[in-house]
Structure formats: structure tokens, C-alpha cells
Amino acid sequence: KFESEIAVNLVIVLALALVIHLLMLGFVYLVVRNRSKDPKKDAMRFASLFGNVGYLGIPFIQTLYKNMPEQMGLMLVYCSSILFVFNIFNWTVGVIMYSHDKKDVSPKKILLNPTIIGCILGFLMFFVVQKPIVDWAGVGVGVNALDSALEKIMDTLNSLAHLVTPLSMIVIGMKLSQIKFKDLFTSKLAYFASFNKLIVMSLITILCVIFLPIDVNIKNVLFF
Questions:
Q1: Under 8 Å CB-to-CB from 176, ≥6 apart: which residues?
Q2: What's the distance, CA 129 to chain centroid?
Q3: How far apart are CA 204 and CA 158, in angstroms?
Q4: Does the pLDDT at position 140 exceed 70?
Q5: Each residue of 26-48: b (16+ CB within 10 Å) or e?
Q6: Which residues contact 188 (CB under 8 A, 6 or more apart)?
Q7: Which residue of 36, 84, 154, 221 lies most exposed, with the fewest beta carbons within 10 A?
Q8: Distances in Å between the alpha carbon of 113 and those of 30, 95, 110, 120, 162?
Q9: Does 127 have pLDDT greater than 80?
Q10: pLDDT confidence of residue 134
């Protein structure tokens, strides 16, 4: 349900996520020079900046807070704000990293991205409707046909949501199976990108939030 404190925190998360991505972007372009437009360096830049925010980030939060459902719900709301910023960067900066041409950035592709659409609808529900779908007509009670239909729809959506991470990991696994096992551990670029994403970006995030007088949940969700 809508709460003014959560609304303010959402804006703070959006702003901090934007700042962190901009700082990391500046660091990547400062450290990784690519005047020759080497595709391997393009991939390293991309991998350094963009983490697995959705497919692994959300399940990680769900696992970490599985015994605290209310806390988990709050963290997932804040996580959606980070995904919003992440996907904007992904479909702008990410595209330019590979194509080296700003003309390839399409506002249509950004706005019609499923994650962006979902975030916009979620934000509208939160700020305008100000109550969850489950409170609309006693969803889950099953007292009439509408309740029963909405309950089935919610169950279906939840089932699909639980499939996202396993299916994405299967697809990635299929791609990795085509790579020589030795190459996974001998690529200097891969180690460098992993160091940037796991260590440097984490340090930048910590420095951005550790001294701020903000909700600890915001600090946690940005770091996780």
C-alpha cells in the first residue's frame, strides 16, 4: 500500500542508482580505452557496468528475506527502481557501447522494453491507485467469480515469474557450452570485467550510501 515514506525512498533509490551507474560509466571509460573499437573491449566495458540485477538480484533478495515477507516486499519495490534505471542505461549506453553510433538508440525500444513497461505500471499503481491488486475485491478469498478469476491470474503470473531465472540460466548455460572450458579461466578481460563489476562497483556503491542519513533498506538493496 502507498506510504509517503516509501514514495520518498523510491525517489532516493532512483537518484542513487542513477548516480552509481554514471560514476561506474565514467570509471569504465576512463580505465578502458578503446579507440580501435575492439569488440572484446566493448564487451568488457559492458560487462563491467551491467550486472545481473534482475535475474539474480531479485531471487537473491527473495532468498535473503524469505522469513520476512513484509521486508522482502519493500526491498523488491526498491529493486524495481534500480531495474528501471538499469534498463534505461542498458538500452542507451549499452547499445552505444557496441554500435558506437547514437543513431541506434531508439526511444521506442526503451519505452517498449517489458521491464520498463512493468515498472511504469507498477509506479502508477503505487502512486495513483495506492493499494495492491490483492486488496481490490478480496482476491484470495474466492467468494465470487471475479475473486476466483483474479486469484487464478495472480497465481499464473507468480508461476511465470518463478520460471524467469531458471530459464535465463538455462539459455546462458547453452551459450557457455559452446565456449572452450579453458577460455573461461584464461581470459584477462573476463577477470578485469569481473573485478570492476564485483569489487569496484561495490566500493562505489558503498561510498555513495554509507554516510548518507537514509533508510538502511535503501543501502542494502543498492549494494545487493
A1: 184
A2: 24
A3: 34
A4: no
A5: ebbeeebeeeeeeeebbebbbbb
A6: none
A7: 36
A8: 29, 14, 5, 11, 20
A9: yes
A10: 63
